[in-house]
Amino acid sequence: MELKKNTITPQEVVEIMTARDGFSKWLGLAIDEVRLGYCRLHYTVRGEMLNGFASLHGGVLFSASDSAFAFACNSHGRLTVALDVSISFTRPAGEGDVLTVEAQEIYLGNKTGVYDIRTTNAAGELVAVFKGTAYRTSAMVKSEL
Hints:
The protein is of the alpha+beta class. It has one domain (10-139): Roll (Thiol Ester Dehydrase, Chain A), CATH 3.10.129. It is built from three helices and six strands, in the order H-H-E-E-H-E-E-E-E. The radius of gyration is 15 Å and the shape is globular. The relative contact order is 0.22. The mean pLDDT is 94.
C-alpha cells in the first residue's frame, strides 16, 4: 500500500492536536519549537502538581514527557501512537520551577520510531529521561474529528 505524501507541516499538526488536547492545556504546556521529529516545550510547576513530599508528582513529569513525545512523533503528519514508554526520574522539582521538555527522534522507520525525551530545570539539570517507541499508522493527521 502506497502512503500519501505529507502535505501538513509539523506546526499544523501540533495546532490540530492541541486544539483537542485539554489535558496538555491543563498542565500548562507551552510549545516553544516543533519540527520534523522534534518538540521542545516548557511548563511551570504548580502547587496542585506536587505529591505528599512537596515534590513534583511523577505522573506530571510522565504526562508532560508523553505530550512532547506525541507532538514529535506525529510531526511527520502520520497518525502515530505509543507502543512502549519508560521514564527515569533523576532529580526532584518543586513549586515554581520552570521545566523544559525536549523530545528528539533518534530512529524513524516505516512503521516505528524511537524518541528520547529529556526534562531539565532552569539550571539545565536533568530531572527525567523518558524513552518512547511509537507505532506509525498509515492514516494521516487531519483537522476533522
